[in-house]
Amino acid sequence: MVVVSVALSPIATFSALQGLERARSDVTSIHERLTKSARSAASGEESVLASAEQVTRALSNLPAVRDGSPACDSELSEASFGVTNFSNLARLNKKGVVVCSAVATAKGVSSARQPIFQQVRRSSKFLVSGEIESAILSRPVIAGMLPLFNSSGTFDGALVIVLDVKRLELLVRSRDLANGAVLFIYDANGHILAASNPVIATALIAHSAASARAGNLRETTDSRGESWTFAIAPLRGGAITVAFAMPQAALFDSTYLNVGADFLMPIMMISFAWLGVWFAAERVVTRWILYLRRLSAVYRRGRYGIRPQLDGAPSEFRSLGEGMAEMALSIQDRDRRLHDALEQKSILIREIHHRVKNNLQIVMSLLSLQAGQLRDTSAREALTQAQIRINALALVHRILHDAEELATIDLKQLLHELSLQIAEGMGHENASVRIQENVDSRRVSGDVAVPVALFVAEALTNIFKYAFAPGTDGVIVMSLLPEATGKLHLSIADNGAGFDASVASSGLGCRLINTFGIQMGGVSKICSEKGKGTRVELVFDDPDCRQVASEAIGINVSRPLAPNASSGANVIKMELFAV
Questions:
Q1: pLDDT tens digit string along 36-80?
Q2: Which of 194, 484, 509, 564 is the most exposed place for a label (fewest CB within 10 A)?
Q3: Domains and CATH numbers, the chain
Q4: Where are the beta strands (DSSP E) in 23-178?
């Protein structure tokens, strides 16, 4: 495909450049036609304003009009009959007050505050205003003013000719415009004076402030978002402007078609070439590659008994298929051996857990027999405490032996069974003591389960022994909950008698609890106060959070022990046998 594309790229490049050049030429031609249309459309309005200037200059030569004498009114009234596009003629004095007028009601009206009067005082030319609301005619008009000067050259007022805006509307509506074209006239303030389509004209003027400009051309959008281009033709210094607008879609349809053809032609050539190459490659190469890919997907799912069917394929693909079939047979044989080995390993691990559990039960029985022979109460209690600890270890191995997953154990099940076991063994004198559990389910390895079981066993036995007097009611709350920091918080609390933690911190139970916390890589804490109960806490890493983090960075953490876990395990052994 790449070779075909490179071979056809010169033709494609030439065609694209040709299309761009044609587009530039068409755009220039269209803009010139649009500008010419605007100038042609403005010719009628320009003629009206030119005739207005001629009328005012002719009247300015009449002595009665120039001097503002009583005959001025009749002169202006007679002149107004000869002009059809204008509504009034008036003479202003140098203060802007009408001294004579074709419309009698206009006499005495002041135009001094009109911007055009302020401009004509500083000018010697005929000036045209924008849209003005006439107080005399009660409708919008356009005023043309010619300054007048006395014999000494001093400003002596102006001659005003008034054009009714409706006359402009008649001129605009009388034009024969192209389909979709809009002709409109507006003043310097953006007021639409006349338009063939007032809605579109208003939108174009409103959006033209931020539009693209190029000389007398404007590009903008209407209220519906349609793009327009319009050319302007200013009249009489820019006070009034004629605009001719066309939708860009109508202007550039043929240009888009020609440019699109220039660009599509090489694309179609390359596409047909690709199609031919693809068809040939599909028949010879691609179909067999896809077949072998599907075969490899079947092998990945463990279905190694399928053999490739490559009749009619090129010899290279047949050789590759035979190699994949031989590889599948080898993998199938290896998987069978691995499965057998794994099954044997599972049987051996279950047997080990079973034998360890039995051996620990034998040890417990021996300790029980020995405790029964002792009369020393402290020695008998020490052996009973050792039995409880060994029983906790035996419980871990029993659950591991019964579990489907030999490598992990559910802490919720372990703590529940362990609490029941200790309550049955220690609660004969405290039958009214209840254990409340709030434990989240967590699967952990045996390395974690053993110290957790010993920690809980040590805490519960001490609570049953010391927290409650015989025959009293009590509650033990055991919880295992996750924290937001990725830790697990194990807490065992009672509402018993409590003790002075600073005095009892050197006891064997406290030392064992601290040692179990060290082995877990966590932090253990004992809080107690006389008469307010005791709370034993252990905060350690959450195996679930650690597993997610290790998978994210590709590290296997199967033994979550602290850096000094080995020394902690040795300390546990020493403490256990110290009893």
A1: 887 887 787 788 888 888 888 888 888 888 888 888 988 888 888
A2: 484
A3: 49-169 (3.30.450.20), 412-578 (3.30.565.10)
A4: 86-92, 98-101, 127-134, 139-149, 155-164
